[in-house]
Design brief:
The structure holds two protein chains of two kinds. Chain A is α/β, with parallel strands linked by helices. Chain A has two domains: 4-220, Rossmann fold; 226-284, 2-Layer Sandwich (Alpha-Beta Plaits). Helix content of chain A is 30%, strand content 30%. Chain A has helices at residues 42-49, 90-100, 105-118, 134-146, 164-179, 191-194, 215-220, 265-273, 288-296, and strands spanning 4-13, 16-26, 31-35, 57-62, 65-66, 75-78, 152-156, 183-188, 200-205, 208-214, 226-232, 243-249, 252-257, 277-284. Chain A has a six-stranded mixed sheet, with helices on both faces. Chain A has a four-stranded antiparallel sheet with strand order 2-1-4-5, with helices on one face. In chain A, helix 2 (90-100) packs across helix 3 and helix 2 runs parallel beside helix 4 (134-146). The longest helix of chain A is centred in the middle third of the chain and has 16 residues, at 164-179. The model of chain A has no long low-confidence stretch (mean pLDDT 86). Chain B is an alpha/beta fold. Chain B folds into two domains: 12-39 and 175-409, no CATH class; 43-156, D-Maltodextrin-Binding Protein, domain 2 (3-Layer(aba) Sandwich), CATH 3.40.190. Chain B contains 18 helices and six strands. Chain B has helices at residues 2-17, 19-41, 56-68, 85-94, 123-144, 149-156, 177-211, 214-219, 224-254, 258-261, 273-300, 304-310, 312-323, 325-330, 335-340, 347-357, 362-390, 400-409; strands spanning 45-53, 72-79, 100-105, 112-117, 165-166, 172-173. In chain B, a hairpin with a 5-residue loop joins strand 5 and strand 6 (172-173). The longest helix of chain B is centred in the middle third of the chain and has 35 residues, at 177-211. Chain B is elongated and about 90 Å long. The model of chain B is unreliable at 262-267 (pLDDT under 50).
């Protein structure tokens, strides 16, 4: 039974179609990445999933049932824009959130301490939110959404604005949750950061689903046609006919091969024939970002 | 219900601990006591003037009247018109040693009297002098006609009007109704301040949650109607706590010798049981009405600044109460007063005021509570709908057609 199931969901604000005919399923124990540029409909999709807004068409099912508010007790939600009470101290805030999700006050406090220890911000517990840095606030909110040990974790842009150390810390927590059998969905516009994490992805663009499926499936549809070369000496091999597109830096080049010439071997031969010294020659599959750009035609910021 | 209480508790604790609560708890009674003191004691005219007259008797009489009457508390010098007096007095006025001077020219049969002062619009002083002059001149003329001083004083004595109220049971009540009136007045302003202040607090608390986006987390578990109810109950309890603190203080003063110490031993608060019950009922209903309106307004706007423009929707109906205060006090049972007290936004304050100072028929009280409750139900129904959608609107302000559409949709 999928934890989340969207079928042909559509949402229109005034005249703008925010989400159009999006369908997706999330299974337990899956790390699901909802990817797309700013304004592509990620947040609107998420809001419909948890009943904050109601879809104009299509159906939403959580835990195999149509939307029921009681089921939200089993969901942990981190909204894109961070919301914490400024004047309230962190412990009280976390306790309050835990209680709203059905925990007792004592249990709530206990878990708040445990989580803060885990994320290394115990010193923030007695402080007011307004005294904390942005990154710390984000960690607090991250904890707030996980206090009640939800079966489904939904996080809207969880890593934006975090330094690499903290981003990794949170990523590790999410992976842990996934390994414990929870369904984790997160959205992001930084596709490069999350490639390694996701089991499944959905790429949205202008409210439409442009790509979805398991990471393997998606990637296998695209040939290994990226070549990274680090070299020294003659660069005339860069004129080779198998190259469709190249970004050349001094002593370094990122190359995309032509679709009909999906083999980097001739290029390497040509380089050696020109007497170029090769430090690195790597043939890789396209990144998610590359795939996205190819699919929507380079119009990422639209 | 569990969630509503949790939200209410959070709201309550945050506000009780805040500075604003402590400050307003102390400041509002001070303001009120201050304004009552001014209203009751501030009407005596004070000042320092001079009287210039060749008729020393008349001048001394006037001086006595001005210095010792119950309406004025002036400092009066009497001077004879010696050479250069005008020059001297003008300088004194210019130097602010004198507030003004009175010239009585008694040479002719009809004395001409003029008052010269630095202040243009000192109506109170002019009136006091006028009244004193009238009394002194009347006495003077009566003496001229051969009456004795004792006779004149007996003649001029103003009779004291004895006031009694007849209660609903037909018994007459001789108790001092000024203190009853003051009590009603105090409670009126108490209600006014609390409802106004905490009503607006509900709106700003909604806006705060909206602008900090906390509500999005809350909405992922809590129903909008539960959120709204929690806020209103939480903020309302703060208001009740404040009233309880004040009433506790008043009681402490009444039942301890403290009041006698500050020289108000004769003052007795006179509140009937009906008045107290009605105060509580109207206070709660009034608070519910205004805070639901405030919650809806809070859901409509996006920021504190925007809220300030909309605050007039709360402040205006409140201000109506103040504007019509005087006509209602003078004629609490007139048709106008009755009609005004049935406007839902005015019922809590005006009906309470009316029944405190006059005998309002029981059916009017009952009917007013019924209409008020009905309008609260309607307002809450509308507010919950606006809240439900408005709270998720951001980036732009809602237009009137949009609001109407929301009401129909949700």
């Amino acid at each position: 039974m999928p934890i989340v199931e969207l079928n042909g969901v559509r949402k229109v604000y005034d005249t703008k179609v925010a989400v159009d005919n999006i369908s997706l399923r999330i299974q337990p124990g899956t790390m699901f990445g909802l990817l797309g540029p700013n304004g592509s409909g990620k947040t609107s999709t998420i809001r419909m999933m948890i009943g904050i807004t109601i879809p104009d068409a299509g159906t939403v099912q959580l835990f195999g049932e149509p939307f029921k508010r009681e089921n939200l007790q089993r969901v942990g939600y981190l909204p894109e824009e961070r919301g914490l009470y400024k004047k309230m101290n962190v412990l009280e805030q976390l306790t309050f959130m835990g209680q709203l999700h059905g925990l007792t006050e004592g249990e709530s406090k206990k878990r708040a301490h445990q989580w803060c220890e885990k994320l290394q911000i115990t010193e923030a517990l007695p402080k007011k939110t307004e005294e904390l840095s942005k990154g710390m606030q984000q960690k607090i909110q991250f904890i707030a959404s996980l206090m009640h040990n939800p079966e489904l974790v939904i996080m809207d842009e969880p890593f934006s604005g975090l330094d690499p150390v903290n981003a990794t810390l949170l990523q590790d927590v999410l992976i842990e949750l996934r390994n414990a059998g929870r369904a984790v969905l997160f959205s992001t516009h930084r596709m490069d950061q999350v490639e390694k994490m996701c089991d499944e992805i959905a790429l949205v663009h202008q409210g439409h689903l442009v790509l979805s499926g398991s990471m393997r499936e998606v990637k296998s549809k695209y040939p290994r046609n990226r070549v990274h070369i680090a070299y020294e000496g003659d660069s005339s091999f860069l004129q080779h006919p198998s190259i469709a597109e190249a970004k050349n830096f001094s002593g370094y080049s990122d190359i995309i091969l032509r679709d009909d010439a999906c083999d980097a071997q001739p290029l390497l031969q040509s380089a050696i024939a020109h007497g170029t010294r090769i430090w690195r020659f790597e043939v890789v599959e396209p990144t998610l970002e590359d795939i996205f750009i190819t699919t929507v035609g380079g119009n990422v910021d639209a | 219900m569990h969630n509503t209480l949790l939200i209410a508790r959070r709201e309550y604790l945050e506000r009780i601990r805040g500075k604003a609560f402590k400050i307003s708890t102390v400041l509002i009674p001070l303001l009120m006591i201050g304004s009552i003191l001014i209203a009751t004691h501030g009407s005596k005219t004070a000042g320092h003037i001079a009287i210039v007259s060749s008729d020393t008797n008349l001048a001394l009489d006037l001086q006595k009247e001005l210095e010792n009457s119950d309406k004025s508390d002036m400092d009066v010098d009497v001077q004879a018109p010696t050479a250069g007096w005008r020059q001297r007095l003008n300088t004194a006025v210019a130097d602010k040693k004198l507030d003004g001077y009175l010239v009585i020219d008694g040479t002719s049969n009809e004395p001409t009297i003029s008052y010269l002062s630095s202040a243009k619009g000192d109506i109170a002083t002019t009136q006091t002098i006028n009244a004193a002059l009238r009394r002194v001149l009347t006495r003077e003329r009566l003496i001229h006609r051969g009456m004795s001083r004792a006779d004149i004083d007996a003649l001029l004595k103003t009779p004291v009007l004895q006031k009694e109220t007849i209660t609903a049971t037909g018994a007459s009540d001789k108790s001092d109704n000024t203190s009853g009136f003051i009590a009603a007045y105090v409670l009126f302003f108490l209600m006014y301040f609390i409802v106004m202040m905490h009503g607006i607090n509900v709106a700003s608390s909604v806006v705060e949650e909206k602008s900090s986006r906390v509500f999005e987390v809350l909405l992922a578990t809590v129903k909008p109607s539960e959120m709204m109810a929690g806020k209103i109950i939480g903020v309302g309890s703060v208001g009740l706590t404040q009233v309880a603190i004040w009433i506790g203080c008043i009681a402490a003063m009444l039942f301890t010798p403290l009041l006698a110490h500050i020289g108000a031993g004769g003052f007795k608060l006179q509140l009937s049981g009906l008045q107290l019950v009605c105060f509580v009922v109207y206070f709660l209903l009034g608070f519910l009405l205004y805070s639901s309106i405030a919650a809806a307004i809070g859901a409509l706007v996006n920021s504190e600044q925007e809220l300030r423009q909309y605050n007039m929707f709360i402040a205006m109906p409140m201000a109506v109460n103040m504007v019509v205060l005087f006509p209602i006090i003078t004629a609490p049972n007139s048709l106008l007063s009755t009609l005004l007290s049935f406007i839902p936004t005015s019922t809590p304050l005006l009906m309470f005021l009316r029944l405190s100072i006059a005998n309002v028929p029981g059916w009017q009280i009952g009917l007013s509570i019924a209409t008020l409750s009905l309008s609260i139900a309607i307002v809450i129904w509308i507010a919950a709908r606006i809240y439900r959608i408005g709270i998720l609107m951001y980036g732009k302000r809602a237009t009137l057609p949009e609001i109407v559409r929301w009401l129909r949709q949700s």
